[in-house]
Amino acid sequence: MHLADFLSPDQIVAGLVSRNKTEVLDELAAPLVEKHDFLDRNEVNNVLVSRENLGTTGIGDGVAIPHGKIAGLDNILISAGLSREGVDFSALDHKPVHIFFLVLAPEKSAGKHLKILAFISRLLQDPDFKDCFINAQSREELWKLINRV
After folding, report:
1. From which residue to which does any coiled coil extend (predicted)?
2. CA 111, 113, 117 angle in degrees (round to 5)?
């Protein structure tokens, strides 16, 4: 499995500017909605906020993997983002989140959806990957890093 199969450089936000959870979700969803015109921005945001209301996707150690299932979606879509300042994302460890991977999945894709979430979670446990991600200075650097895994 390669993350680059599910996202492209234009789906990476190297300098998130949002300061709260709802704004970050919208900022991460924006490149997906812009690229895939069949997606409705309000629907995507509502799905993501509803999922967050069930329990935070801020898994701790500066990482969040917001995700949701979208009706009519054929393939998994991913965006990635980096917040240098960090965002209060109600993470399990109560620390600011810097690294985000947003995953949108088809409604009936439980197996593949869970595999992607597990893959991203394992990847973000790698201190070398996390250090490179945090220290990347541009979208291009983040893409090169993501494209290697």
Report:
1. none
2. 115
Q: 66 with 121: CB under 8 angstroms?
A: no
Q: Region 44-54: what's the mean pLDDT? A: 97
Share of the chain above pLDDT 90, in %: 93
Q: What residue segments make up the domains of the chain, in order of their start?
A: 11-148
Residue 14, φ and ψ in degrees, nearest 5: -75, -15
Query: Which amino acid belongs to residue 122?
Result: R
What is 11-148's CATH number? 3.40.930.10
- Are the beta carbons of 15 and 141 closer than 8 angstroms? no
Rg for the chain, CA atoms, rounded: 14
Distance between CA 125 and CA 85 in Å, rounded? Answer: 20
**Is 67 an active-site residue?**
yes
pLDDT tens-place string over residues 94-122:
999 999 999 999 998 888 999 999 999 99
Q: Which of 143, 138, 125 is nearest to 65 (CA)?
A: 125
Contact 28, 100 (CB under 8 A): yes
